[in-house]
Design goal:
The protein has about 325 residues and is mostly helical. The chain has one domain (about 1-315). About 75% of the residues lie in helices and about 0% in strands. The protein contains twelve helices and no strands. It is globular. The two termini are about 20 Å apart. This is Phosphate/sulfate permease. Keywords: Membrane, Transmembrane, Transmembrane helix.
């Protein structure tokens, strides 16, 4: 029974986490490469994922979470209620709500002290992302996000440069996101994986990714598509690079898990405000509504996460 819960939990967590979170890193990549066959995009992302996973497993003695799970222990006995978190996340993902998988999945296995540290790191991450993206786009929006600059890009040979740049920035961002979120995917499995467990889990993850890529991201992708110019390859490149740098610098500051969802939403919010402030002042109200809607969605996800944690604690006492 325990093995059933362990492997079922991993399958549910892998599908829910990848389905909910992958769009944060690959959403702009999918949008701006909508005419490229999904198999090529999947093969590219799968190569980066496999390399990052195997490197972590080799470097940390079988620990694919890059030590993010050092303070999140696996219970001696897994019970059915541990599956409530990934099942809830799966349902939420189907409705297109970008919930924080870190809070939803890891909170079930974490102490109150670790949960507080995760929340604090994630809130700071949101604030840093909003400010960084806002300042960055105040400086570059006129040159890179105006209609005239985008039209000029289409008419020149610069597009080849930006295609290469985008695939490079996506590879960098994707690897940094995986370092943060492998913990959410692998929390149900032993902290030290054997080679067989590593390869078996990799096959499962790549299969799930193939399904998501074939469906072009699903519901969560709509959040990316609603933002200004995200289908433009140059815009997508800058978003990915900004996001990747924040995860690299701030996310690796310590090994406490953090919500990459909150960081992603923060970047989109700061970017949207700056672009519309400079270029589309008439659309500022619409921007604020979109940002408020996005923030409400992640807040709902956080509230549900906390509810699930307390529900499991209640069930344990029965």
């Amino acid at each position: 029974m325990e093995l059933f819960i362990l492997y079922t939990g991993f399958l549910l967590a892998a599908y829910a986490v990848i389905g909910n979170d992958v769009i944060q890193t690959l959403g702009t990549f999918l949008s701006s490469n909508s005419k490229t066959h999904w198999l090529y995009l999947w093969a590219f992302a799968s190569t980066i994922l496999s390399a990052t996973l195997i490197y972590g497993w080799y470097s940390y003695g079988g620990d694919v979470s890059y030590q993010r799970l050092d303070q999140v222990s696996l219970p001696e006995t897994l019970m059915w209620w541990h599956l409530l978190a990934p099942i809830t996340l799966l349902v939420i993902t189907r409705f297109g709500i970008p919930v924080s998988t870190t809070f939803m999945i890891l909170s079930v296995f974490s102490s109150q002290q670790i949960i507080e540290k995760m929340m604090l790191k994630s809130v700071y991450g949101y604030g840093i992302s909003v400010i960084t993206a806002f300042v960055l786009y105040l400086l570059i929006a006129q040159r890179f996000e105006s209609k005239s600059s985008i039209d000029k890009l289409r008419k020149t040979n610069q597009k080849r440069f930006w295609i290469i740049a985008q695939w490079g920035s996506t590879a960098f961002l994707w690897s940094q996101w995986l370092i943060q979120d492998f913990a959410n995917i692998y929390v149900f499995l032993p902290r030290k994986l054997s080679l067989v467990e590593l390869l078996g889990s990799l096959v499962v993850i790549l299969t799930i990714m193939a399904y998501i890529f074939k469906n072009r991201g699903g519901k969560i992708q709509e959040m990316v598509n609603q933002k200004v110019n995200t289908r433009n390859i140059r815009s997508a490149t800058i978003i990915d690079l900004c996001y990747g740098i924040i995860l690299f610098v701030y996310g690796n500051y310590n090994s406490i898990p953090m919500s990459t969802t909150w960081t992603f939403i923060g970047i989109l919010a700061g970017r949207e405000i700056a672009i519309n402030y400079l270029l589309n002042k008439g659309k500022l109200k619409t921007s604020y509504k979109l940002i408020a809607k996005d923030f409400a969605k992640v807040s709902i996800g956080l509230a549900i996460s906390i509810f699930i944690v307390y529900l499991i604690q209640f069930i344990k006492t029965i």
